Amino acid sequence: MKKIKVGFQGELGAFSQEAVRQLLGDAPTVVPFQRFEEVFKALDKGVTDASVLPIENTLAGSVHENYDHLLNFNVRIVAETNVRIVHNLMALPGVRFRDIRRVYSHPVALNQCLDFFTGNPAIERVPFYDTAGSVKMVMEKGLTDAGAIASAVASTIYGAKILRKSIEDDRQNFTRFFLLNAKQRVLPPERPVKVWKTSLVFTTRNTPGALFRGLSAFALRDLNLTKIESRPLRGKPWEYLFYVDFEGKEEDPVVQKALGHIAELADFIRVLGSYPRGH
Amino acid sequence: MKKIKVGFQGELGAFSQEAVRQLLGDAPTVVPFQRFEEVFKALDKGVTDASVLPIENTLAGSVHENYDHLLNFNVRIVAETNVRIVHNLMALPGVRFRDIRRVYSHPVALNQCLDFFTGNPAIERVPFYDTAGSVKMVMEKGLTDAGAIASAVASTIYGAKILRKSIEDDRQNFTRFFLLNAKQRVLPPERPVKVWKTSLVFTTRNTPGALFRGLSAFALRDLNLTKIESRPLRGKPWEYLFYVDFEGKEEDPVVQKALGHIAELADFIRVLGSYPRGH
User: Fold this and answer.
1) Quick one: pLDDT at residue B182?
2) Domain B196-274: top CATH class
3) Do the domains spanning A5-85+173-181 and A196-274 agree at the CATH topology level?
4) Backbone angles phi, psi at B158, to 5 degrees
5) CATH number of the domain at B88-164, please?
6) pLDDT in tens, B164-190
């Protein structure tokens, strides 16, 4: 059987790769890309069979760029998963903690370890484009006075030694990832599904109460909204696109009625996918 | 009379400085800071009398970091203004357009001039931390093969020559700025106010229909919602803070009733300010 190819952003060992493993196990071939847009383009062109992309983090908030790409590319959300983000300080084997003068990582990761840096004021924070990429660089250059902050799996991949485990300020640090298919070819392993979720995007007419009436399509049918995100509507200053996630499956009769109700009110509506609620 | 000090992010000539001028005229002394957080801190400590900060752009969307700072610092929004963003290519006087090999600017500005770069594929885009800062750097280093993208006022301040005017892809490019006071000391010049706006932030209990019921406080009183933004609630994964702007003044009886209604439903509510609608 041909192995499926799954694209993600970052170097091997990025948290996105952990999301791939949670969603699809160890079977797929993972294909790293530098930028989110490249991950979407590769899926669109059939270079990959699926994509795994972060959509929000419980501390940093939404990944707005990916909300925009979801609209601009013809993809479907087929699954979601939540990855617990644990940051570890790692370095070349043999390097001791007291040798560390600089620590490289993605700015978001550095910002999530502020207590560590406050407690170790002699250590300089250096922003790098990727968490796992910072480990790769420290190892390849053989730096003996520098460390990197990344996932435990990155330490294994690049042969770095973990000097301090779980140095993130806040343990309530999770990132939610979507599994995307262009043609629904790749599905996650089947499990009994307790709760489905559906994601959609719509615009409202710029009239008083328009969003309230839009949300009534869900509230009046007891469909639980789990997320709402607004993005600017290009070409119409101060108007917005609304991205909504709610509990329910697209095929459910009540969801069909809610979607019909939104369509009555909205200039534009597109369902981005229905998928089992992630853990 | 002592000149008031107004903080903003970026170098002199940044679009934020144009916002200061639109809000307060040429009287204030402007104080540039490198980071948004520094602008808030300076106001909090009384180093400045007021701050001007971008909150959203019609193409790039909200400046989420500033939404977070609005909550974390004890400040009031006292005015808003919209600045039309016009990007100009500029260089050292004497440098001709055909000499330009590289163009420096803030990544958001570079991304808003994609048609220009597509039409001039030999010119490399180089990200820089600030639009006006990129002009300053090109001028200080005396680069003869490089240009910068920034506001017309930046060309005047640093003595650069504009080679191409208004190279932004989309003319519908506006940034909305807030004027913030810590103690309501600085007020914009009084004009007859047609429409007031009020900004607030609240949380909802994590129950089905909670946001819908929250928005009913405005919709059922015909208060026009102009913006809603969600940000993650620290320590409560997958729960959110909602930032809402609506038309009305905090002291209006109907607004008082709406705020009371929200307070019944919300665990937390804070009014960030009432201010005349900007132009």
Assistant:
1) 80
2) alpha beta
3) no
4) -100, 0
5) 3.40.190.10
6) 999 999 999 999 999 999 876 667 777
* Domain extent listing, chain A: 5-85+173-181, 88-164, 196-274
Residue B100 CB: number of other CB atoms within 10 A? 21
For B5-83+174-181, give the CATH class: alpha beta
Q: State how far the Cα of A187 lies from the Cα of A41, in Å rounded to an integer.
A: 19
Q: Which residues of A touch B57 (CB under 8 A)?
A: 232
> How does residue A184 score in pLDDT terms, banded at 50, 70 and 90?
low
What pairs with residue B229 in β-bridges?
B243
Token pair for A162: 């973990």
Residue range A16-56, pLDDT digits in tens: 999 999 999 988 999 999 999 999 999 999 999 999 999 99
pLDDT of B1 reads 55
CB contacts, 8 Å: A238 with chain B: 58, 176, 226-227
In this prediction the pTM is 0.90
**Which residues of A are part of the catalytic machinery?**
175, 177
Tokens of B233: 């609630």
Per the structure block, which two tokens stand in for A67?
């909300």
pLDDT at A3: 87
Q: Which of B59, B212, B231 sits opposite A234 (nearest CB)?
A: B59
As a whole number of angstroms, the distance between CA A57 and CA B115 comes to 33
Note the residue count of chain A.
Answer: 279
What homologous superfamily is domain A5-85+173-181 in, according to CATH?
Periplasmic binding protein-like II (3.40.190.10)
CA–CA dist A171, A264 (Å, integer): 43
